[in-house]
Amino acid sequence: MKYLIVCCLLLFCCSExxxxxxxxxxxxxxxxxxxxxxxxxxxxxxxxxxKAGGIPVVLPVLEDSxxxxxxxxxIDGLLLTGGADVHPLRYGEQPLxxxxxxxxxxxxxxVWYLQSAIRHHKPVLAICRGEQLANVVLGGTLYQDLxxxxxxxxxxxxxxxxxxxxxxxxxxxxxxxxxxxxxxDSVAVNSFHHQAVKRLAKGxxxxxxxxxxxxxxxxxxxxxxxxxxxxxxxxxASKGDVVWLNLxxxxxxxxxxx
Length: 258
Ligand code: MN
Known about the structure:
Elements: H1 2-22, E1 27-31, E2 33-35, E3 38-40, H2 43-51, E4 55-59, H3 65-73, E5 77-80, H4 104-119, E6 124-127, H5 129-137, E7 142-143, H6 146-149, E8 167-171, H7 176-180, E9 186-189, E10 196-197, E11 205-210, E12 215-219, E13 226-229, H8 234-237, H9 242-257
Parallel strand pairs: 1-4, 1-5, 5-6, 6-13
Antiparallel strand pairs: 2-3, 7-10, 8-9, 8-11, 11-12, 12-13
Helix pairs in contact: 3-4, 4-5
The chain binds manganese (II) ion.
């Protein structure tokens, strides 16, 4: 009898283990900031990845590039999140008076995460600061402050909450983003930025602009497995919006396909 129970237990445990292996979801690393002694990342990014079928794992700011490289080897895809301004010294400019707050420790850590992801061919979804950082890492530049540097710029720093769209973007037909948005040529997005892509890095193409000509989305396909957006789809996706969730499902799919 005892023997039978042990056998049943063993069978149960083994089948459980097998089921877990068969349902393996891709692990999506989510870059976080550091605020004083705490790791900081908005919950909406994490929920959007979870809803899209990925395993969300938070990647902290680290000062060790080799450790970052080892961590990137263990994830399947990278979500580069929003945050402070990228320091202009990273793209060869001196800081203007209108530059916002900068976090050079996070810049360094994020640059290492992205460079490692590129080196190991891990797919990337880059949001807001993440998109700007990707452009800088690959040799592009940024407007340090749109209102003082970009002619006839509209409002890109909304005061309403992120689940309310603020301005329209016009999406390039035939682009990857266009497909993800179900062939929509124009969609309304939220907007929380005073910086944007100025000189585009080689290997990227611009796939969406706002009416005032600000770059709102870039793609690196096929050279770089990177989609970058200037807006924040996670606000909508984390609440289950099917259209914006597609951007996260796409990251999960690209991360599974490898
Ligand atoms: Mn905008």
